Amino acid sequence: MNIIKQQETICTSSLSLLLMWVTDLATLMPELSTQWHPTKNLNLSPSQIKKSSNKKVWWLCDKGHEWKTSVGARTGKNGTGCPYCSGQRVAVGENDLATLNPYLAKEWHPYKNGDLTPNDVTKGSHIKVWWVCKIGHEWESRIANRNNGNGCPHCRKAKLNK
């Protein structure tokens, strides 16, 4: 089948290649294409995939973090970056609570959080966990709130009552 435009005939397969070239990731976002994982995407390259594709592929940031997400998630209006660098995922020894706030990690309750440890969460996490202050008070609070300076509520009440 041929498409006729301005008295020229273009083969539909050539048109498909031309359209892909104009909408592919490598052409439209060359900076992002540098984070395309060099080995984990088999034979697929940024020039073979559309910028808006929902296909999940592997990425590699400048710090060496690897993750899998769709091309569209990276290129959309609220495009995402590296989930480890942004603190959405834990990179032990880099962005975990134990590494970034060891003082706070010392107040992590030793058994009420199950298998979860300060190495498993980021300092900005909104999950609630159990804490124990240096004089033994126990309470539950969000990690992010604790990291922002919220301490033991029992000790705070005691100070206010003095």
From TrEMBL:
UniProt superkingdom: Bacteria
Segments forming domain Treble clef zinc finger: 32-87, 104-157
PANTHER family: BLR8090 PROTEIN (PTHR37317), ZINC-RIBBON DOMAIN-CONTAINING PROTEIN-RELATED (PTHR37317:SF1)
Protein name as annotated: Treble clef zinc finger domain-containing protein
